[in-house]
Every structure is written in C-alpha cells, then in structure tokens.
Amino acid sequence: MHVKKLTPVLLVEEIEPCVKFWVDRLGFEKTVEVPEGDKLGFVTLQKGGVEVMYQSFASVEKDGAFAAQHYRKGPTFLYIEVASLDDVMAAMKGVAVAMPERTTFYGAWEIGYRDPGGHSFTFAQFGAQ
Questions:
Q1: Residue 123 is inside which H or E element, if any?
Q2: Per residue in 9-25, pLDDT tens?
Q3: CATH superfamily membership of 75-129
Q4: What residue spans in the chain does CATH classification 3.10.180.10 cover?
Q5: pLDDT over 70 at 70, yes or no
Q6: DSSP state letter for 91
Q7: What's the predicted TM-score (pTM) here?
C-alpha cells in the first residue's frame, strides 16, 4: 500500500473562526468552501503540501453517511513539525498557550495552542535548542 496524503477533518460548531485562525495567523489559503445556509458547512485549507479540513456538526448531521452523535466526543490533537517555532510563536501572539513551551527528551522544542473550535495543536521544531 502506498499512502499519498493524510488530511485531518476537524469537526466544529462554527467554521468561520477556525478559517481566520489558519489563514490570518498561519498563512494558509482557503481552497474549498461549501456553504451550509448562511454559514460554512465545510472548508479545505492548504499551505504547500499541508492540508486541513473543517466540517460543521450541522453539516455532518445532514450527511446520511455519518451518525453525527458519534463524532461529538471531544477535540482532536495534532502534532505539527515546523521549521521555526519562533515564527509560530510570533504568528500566535495574543492566542492563549495551551501547553507551555518546552524542550523534550526526544529533541523537540514544542508549544501548544487550541483553535477556536477547541482542537489542540502542538507545534514542534527539532534540533532547535
């Protein structure tokens, strides 16, 4: 088996604040947008070869392929390796830190944040300190 790509789909109550988080702070581009009434039901965000998708709970509930009640269990945790943690911290200025900056035994310099939808992100730079 050859895996070509892995893209997380994060479920949230409201997509719009998450789009601002990724576009305004992290420089991602919105490449797909699917309206759901007067809000977004689905969006794809991309930067280089990295992609993340968001879908609203309301959109999932309308999708007959899913049993939406099973998808409201809790946040997702993503680990994101970056070239410069300093750049991430500058971009995230003003956002509450969810996991304080630390250097790990496995050689990563890390810091954690949450998006407006409640999902957690650990950003890591290896060989930095």
A1: strand 120-126
A2: 999 999 999 999 999 99
A3: 2,3-Dihydroxybiphenyl 1,2-Dioxygenase, domain 1 (3.10.180.10)
A4: 1-73, 75-129
A5: no
A6: H
A7: 0.88
